Amino acid sequence: MDTLAQNPPTGIAAATTDLSKAYGSGDTRVVALDRVGITFREGEFTAIMGPSGSGKSTLMHCAAGLDAFDSGSVRIGTTELGTLDDRQLTRLRRDRIGFIFQAFNLLPTLTALENITLPLTIAGRRADQQWLDRVVAMVGLSQRLDHRPAQLSGGQQQRVAVARALASRPAIVFGDEPTGNLDSRAGGEVLGFLRDSVRELGQTVVMVTHDPVAAGYADRVVFLVDGRLVDEMARPTPDRVLDVMKTFDTRTRTS
Ligand SMILES: Nc1ncnc2c1ncn2[C@@H]1O[C@H](COP(=O)(O)OP(=O)(O)OP(=O)(O)O)[C@@H](O)[C@H]1O
C-alpha cells in the first residue's frame, strides 16, 4: 500500500471532530464522549487525563478505530474512519496504528524479536531493518532479542511491547495506561523510551494515564471531564497536572 500517496503530509497524525458516543439507552444511558474535538499533531506526545469514568479509554478506542462512535468524525492522517468498512478498518489499524496496553500482551512461546516483528509477519511485510535496529537499540533490548517473555522483567517486557508498537513505523501510537503494571523505575524507563521515540524518531504518541508523573513526560496534556474536553496544558509538569486534577475532584464532590 502506498501510504504516502494516500496520505500526503498534513502535520496532523489524527484528529476527532465533534466526536460523541453514548452507552446504553433510556434511564441507563451514559454519555461517554460529548462532541470532543482534538488534534494530535505529528511528532507530538499527548497524555489524556481526567477523573475515572470521564471517557479517556472511550476516546482512545474511538480515535484508534477499536470502537464505533455515534456521531462526529475521526481521521488518521487524511483517512476518515467513518468511510471505511470493517476490513479496511482492520487493515488501517494493522498498518498505521501501534498499540501499547497495560498488560504487555506478549506471546510466551516467541522470542522478544519474534514478538516485536509479529505484526509485520502477520501483515506479510518485511521489516525495515534499519528502522528496527534503531527501535531495538533505543529501548535497550539489543542483548535480549533471543529471550522469551518469561526470561524478561516486567519493564523489559513492556519495552518489547513498545518496540512492537513502533516496528511498523505507524502514523500514531496509542497507549492505554502503558505503565500501569510497572513500578516507578521501570515505568519511568518506558516513558523515557516513548518520549525518545517522539524526539529522536519523530513518532506521534497518545497515552491515557492516571499518573501526573507519567503525564509529565508528554508534550501536552488534555483533560476530559464527563466526556468533554475541558482543559489543555503545554509542557506539563507533574505538579501543575496535579493542581488541575485537584480542581476536578472538587468539582465532582460539589456537583
Ligand atoms: N461497555 C460499556 N457499557 C456501558 N457503559 C460504559 C461502557 N464502557 C464505558 N462505559 C461508561 O462510559 C463512561 C466513560 O468510560 P471510560 O472507560 O471511557 O472512562 P475512563 O475515563 O477511561 O475511566 P477510567 O479512568 O476509570 O478507566 C463511564 O461512565 C463508563 O461507566
Helix content: 25-40%
The name CATH uses for the topology is Rossmann fold
SS element count, helices:
9
Hetero ligands: adenosine-5'-triphosphate
Q: Can you identify the CATH class?
A: Alpha Beta
CATH superfamily, please? Answer: P-loop containing nucleotide triphosphate hydrolases
Number of separate structural domains: 1
GO molecular function: ATP binding
Keywords: ATP-binding, Nucleotide-binding, Transport
Protein name: ABC transporter ATP-binding protein
Organism: Streptomyces sirii
Description:
GO terms for molecular function: ATP binding. This is ABC transporter ATP-binding protein. It comes from Streptomyces sirii. The chain is of the alpha/beta class and 255 residues long. The chain has one domain: Rossmann fold (3-Layer(aba) Sandwich), CATH 3.40.50.300. It is 38% helix and 25% strand. The chain has nine helices and ten strands. It has helices at residues 3-6, 56-63, 86-96, 112-123, 129-138, 154-167, 184-199, 212-215, 238-254, and strands at 12-23, 30-41, 45-49, 71-76, 79-80, 97-100, 172-176, 205-208, 220-225, 228-234. The protein has a six-stranded mixed beta sheet with strand order 6-7-8-3-9-10, with helices on both faces. A four-stranded antiparallel beta sheet has the order 2-1-4-5, covered by helices on one side. It is globular and about 50 Å long. The relative contact order is 0.18. Residues 1-5 have low confidence and may be disordered. The chain binds adenosine-5'-triphosphate. Adenosine-5'-triphosphate (ATP) is lined by residues 23-24, 30, 32, 50, 52-58.
